[in-house]
Amino acid sequence: MIAALPSQALIGLINGAFYALLSLGMAIIFGMLNVINFAQGAFYMIGAFLAWMLLHYFGVSYWTALLAAPLAVAALGIFVERLLLSRVYRLDHIYGWLVTYGLALMAESVFRFFYGVSGKPYSPPADLRGGIDLGLMFLPTYRGWVVLVSAVLCLAVWLAIERSRLGAHLRAAVENPVLVQAFGINVPRLLTLTYALGVGLAAFAGVLAAPIYQVTPLMGSQIIVVVFAVVVIGGLGSILGTVVTGFSLGLIQGVTKAFYPQAADLVIFVVMAAVLLALPAGLFGRR
Amino acid sequence: MLISHRREYPLKTWGGGRSLPLALAASLLLSPLAQAYGADAVKIGVLTDMSGAYADAAGQGSIVAAQLAVEDAGGALFGKPIEIVSADHQNKPEIGATIARRWYDREGVEMITDLTNSAVAIAVQNVSREKHKVDLVTSTATTAITNEECSPWGVHWTFDSYALSVGTAGALVREGAKTWYFITADYTFGANLEATATREILAGGGKVLGHSLAPLNTTDFSSQLIDAKASGADVIGLANSGADTANVVKQANEFGLRQKQKLAAFLPFITDIRSMGLDNAQGLILTTAFYWDRDDEARRFAERFYARHKAMPTMIQAGTYSAVRHYLAAVAAAGSVDADQVMQWMRDTPVNDAVFHGGKIRTDGQMVHDMYLVQVKTPAESTRDWDFYKVLRTIPADQAFPPLSDSKCRFAKAS
Predict the structure, then answer these.
(1) Chain A contact for B277, CB < 8 A?
(2) A11 contacts B223? CB cut-off 8 A
(3) What is the rounded CA–CA span in Å between residue A27 and residue A31?
(4) Which segment of B17-31, B95-109, B248-262 scores lowest on mean pLDDT?
(5) Degrees (nearest 5) of the Cα angle B209, B273, B58?
(6) Could you report the per-residue pLDDT of B187-212, keeping only the tens digit for each?
(7) Domain residues of chain A, as ranges?
(8) Nearest chain B CA: its distance from A102 CA (Å)
(9) Which architecture characterizes domain B8-159+295-369 according to CATH?
(10) Shortest alpha-carbon distance between residue A205 and chain B (Å)
(11) Which DSSP symbol is given to A71?
(12) What is the pTM of this model?
């Protein structure tokens, strides 16, 4: 259906926004902490559930949840980092991966025990309902909002890390923690805050996703493998690379769906294999 | 799927009580002894999806339904408590078949039920047929269970694609919705449902313009919905179920699809309607084998079920209750668990319980009974939680299922 190409591409871009936000958090955590955070999907799911809980139990609106959920999850992230992750930094990557994978499994099981798998209804806020007829397709307003806010947030995070002083401290601390600590900068606290930022981003993506996808305990595991692929293709540790790859892969998936929908899930891994064969460090990778 | 754990626990129902640690300890201590006495205790297996897309429609609720049936049958047979074992097949046929084999060969299970997921149901029915054991498929839609893959000791209890299509597709085509476009789950179930519905649509003078496939557990249907909208069909048929249906309906509303096109959901369960919310689901027309609010007897059963499971029973769960009750009555009457004797009694006796009135099991394995065409209420019409359906009409058993002469089952004989 070539006629559907522009609209499928646009949808792909919207999906790419989610990939970009989630993999951004994962890339930051890997770049700065050397931990492959497989719990990223779980924090995304918790963010979505918090948005639902805030609405269902306290009548708190979507807009407040956009701020409150990431902050709450960031606090949870601080707790996780202090208790568990700080102990595995000096070890092989695999331990960080295993710990976070274990956390993800636990989180999913707990939520599934209490809430089942059917998913909870969550409507987009009244201001963002309806849509615009673009001629080539009908664009729901909410989805347009998702692309916009993701792009802005990714840009803001990139600027903060690459151009601000705090970002400079962070990057220096990764290069040479001992020296940076000697300058009086509290490196462990920087690392904790970085993890909190990474998972806070995931929770933000979760709140964004709640009105579109089902809020279900399974939503984390459904998306995590693609997110991991995006981070690997983009280049582990490169923030710009991850964001660009996230949006691009979403686009590629959308285009694939226009021609051969069954390959849409497969194409991401084909790209990953091809990129890694040609450029083992990923597209924008530095190590 | 990230998760790959498997839960399996034997539940000894001592008149309704349930104690997992006690049961585990007891079974460990008694297992060498159980080999000697196990042949007499009647053991039923509930093999279902406990953690995937159908876990709320079947899953733990199916086990609860089986327990209710055991209690209603008196809790014991031949002087021993009736046992229920359960397991999660994780929607994988090879896991389902392996568990079935182990249950039949080493654990003395005589009957397996539920079997949500068409591919798993076919695999387990094949194992059951090989082992000359009874399997009561109270779930899944694939018509293969009573055709190519039929078994003399297998029954398709609750619903199948044909019954769902006759109801939903038949009703809409008669109303004038002639052109259709399908969004189909890309595996056995979806393909079978689409094919069966297509036959019904063509028979009614309609046309199918095309389809879009989506793997099981797809979360984002935007590309399929765009294709559906572009097709301009009168109706978009959803040949999927569970969480997939809930997602499509939600997103169809998001894309403004329902302004010009109708949505026909073939297999939403009442749990899916609840998770979509009436805002999204209102107006959907669907076919169901059971509705908890249908009559007093159904309501009484549903309230008992609700007290334990905190949700109203879906037709799968209600079907499991009915199947286990009928099976236990057959074993009691026949005085043994011999599959041939039990099946003969089950076929000779109508199925009459809170769930089905006047159901009958045919030689092709189809349990024929009435089906109901229902419409989802608007939020204004619904007076309480779970008050979701208004019954439009009853589809009598002889219309809801194809005649026995059409069956491709090699064991079917006109009786």
Answers:
(1) yes
(2) yes
(3) 6
(4) B17-31
(5) 100
(6) 888 999 999 999 999 999 999 999 99
(7) 12-116+138-217
(8) 10
(9) 3-Layer(aba) Sandwich (3.40)
(10) 15
(11) H
(12) 0.79
